Fold this sequence. Notes:
By secondary structure, the chain is of the alpha+beta class.
Amino acid sequence: MSLITLTTDFGTKDHFIGAIKGAIYSELNNAKVVDISHQITPFNITETAYILKNAYKNFPKGSIHIIDVDSELSVENKHIAIALDGHYFICADNGIISMIASEIKPDKIIEITIHSTLTSYSAFVKVACHIARGGTLDVVGRATDEYKQLNEVHPYINKEQNQIVGTIIYIDNYGNVICNITKKLFNDVGKGRPYEVSARHYTFNKIVNKYNEIVNFDLPQEKRQYDGEKLALFNASDYLEIAIYKSNLKSVGGASTLLGLGYRDSITLRFL
Length: 272
């Protein structure tokens, strides 16, 4: 039995999560359901794509991912089911898939046509349970080879190939800000050249690969004063991140608050 995951902007206060899970179990009472996140910023498809892209790879092949963010059906917001990288994704065609599929081509894309009087999540549940039973995508809609592109997925590279301008696509629980410049892009464009990273009024001359790389562990603990230091790093997902060492949004703050960095702000990487 395939796992069914849920990623939504529903939050946990209202009845929606219970309703969608109830619909799954009513359709398939031995289903295995896993929550990825229900705390997506409402209607934020870029944030949704970032979270899902970094989560789905850890699930077994054949897993089915329901993505219910900005999913109200309309002539401009159709519903799709996609087979990609050994997984299935069921969501609105609002650009979410373009980040997940930026490096891996989908094997099949179906525009879902089984709605009738079903709500968005009811249609998603029907499709997910159909796949979980071993059903094929062709039964739930018609094949297509198109899906909307999310422009924020792609950083800007100038003609001289000495500057990459990225966009902040996600702010995590610690207030760290993540932009859409990947380590691969940095290496491909930079080719080992010296560089600097500019984020608002702050400049970084080094990108580290883990947070505590800035710590000198040869010093006695009482002489280490690194808490609150600014740093740039490639995070575990290989995206460029601006962070505060041992940040806490509820006390000392994070990069988003202390450096005044927000969603869709620019981060510039210059090669010298």
